[in-house]
């Protein structure tokens, strides 16, 4: 949420169906999160992902949750990469380098496993 404030992004938490994914709008600099999402463990990564859409200026209202995330050129893959980059400093700030663990990071933030190489790279780059 600090990053959202830093980038002047308004975050709204609303009640929707448990299968309604979050979304974002670059035009309105807003992220809408679903308080009733069926897997609350995904909240932090989802929030970072949606903030990343706005930071990177993804045009149009974004509602691609079920789109293909793995294509490295896709808007969703890039938002996932941006989410990892936003979360790495938060994860690392109170840890010594020897206590950094990619598996722990991925579990803590519910990061999709196909981003393992990205997580390892970004954790290494942090130090």
Describe the SSE topology.
Layout: H1 2-6, E1 10-14, E2 23-25, E3 30-34, H2 43-55, E4 61-62, H3 75-92, H4 102-109, H5 116-126
Parallel strand pairs: 1-3
Antiparallel strand pairs: 2-3, 2-4
Helix pairs in contact: 2-3, 3-5, 4-5
Textual characterization of the structure:
The protein has five helices and four strands; from the N terminus they run H-E-E-E-H-E-H-H-H. The protein is α+β, with helices and mostly antiparallel strands. Strand 2 (23-25) and strand 3 form a beta hairpin. The chain starts with a helix and ends with a helix.
Keywords:
four-stranded mixed beta sheet, 127 residues, Zincin-like, 43% helix, single chain, alpha+beta
| CATH class designation | Alpha Beta
Count every beta strand, where a strand is a DSSP E run of 2 or more residues.
Answer: 4
Rg: 14 Å
Tell me the strand percentage band. Answer: 5-15%
User: Which structural class do the helices and strands define?
Assistant: alpha+beta
Mean pLDDT: 91
The helix/strand order is HEEEHEHHH
- Low-confidence regions: none
Shape: globular
Number of domains: 1
Compute the number of helices.
5
How would a crystallographer describe the biggest sheet? 4 strands, mixed
Task: Report the span from N to C terminus.
Answer: 23 Å
* Helical proportion, percent range: 40-55%
CATH topology name, in short, is Zincin-like
* Level-2 CATH architecture: 2-Layer Sandwich
Please sum up the structure shown.
The protein is an alpha+beta fold. It is built from five helices and four strands. The protein has a single domain, classed as Zincin-like, CATH 3.30.2010.
